[in-house]
Design a protein that fits this description.
With 103 residues, the chain is mostly helical. It has five helices and two strands. A hairpin with a 2-residue loop joins strand 1 and strand 2 (35-36). Helix 1 (4-21) packs antiparallel against helix 3. The chain starts with a helix and ends in a 7-residue tail after the last helix.
Length: 103
């Protein structure tokens, strides 16, 4: 039960990454888990905003989570930020992009 808020924060980040990954500029998927993707139902603009909102919500949830004896709240939020940032999650999306930048 104590880990649930941080698990929810990580799930928000995961869902944000899937919403953005499905966009026409990325993988251009029409379906996710057998259902129409966010951008197919609500349009690209709303899908982008929904993903952005999920990412922001994740950090709000993490910032409100209780402190842990072994890890400070600061360390947990920093780890989440690094994992979802340009050198990890976003770097993976860049590598997976159909038109990766020239090196």
């Amino acid at each position: 039960a104590d880990a649930l808020p941080l698990a929810c924060a990580v799930e928000c980040i995961h869902t944000y990454s899937l919403v953005h990954d499905d966009l026409p500029a990325m993988d251009n998927d029409d379906y996710r888990r057998g259902k129409l993707t966010n951008h197919k139902v609500f349009g690209e603009g709303i899908a982008i905003l929904a993903g952005d909102a999920l990412l922001t919500q994740a950090f709000e949830i993490a910032a409100q989570a209780k402190n842990w004896p072994r890890y400070s709240q600061r360390d947990v939020i920093l780890e989440i930020a690094r994992a979802s940032g340009s050198l990890q999650l976003i770097a993976g999306q860049v590598a997976d992009h159909p038109d990766p930048p020239a090196s």
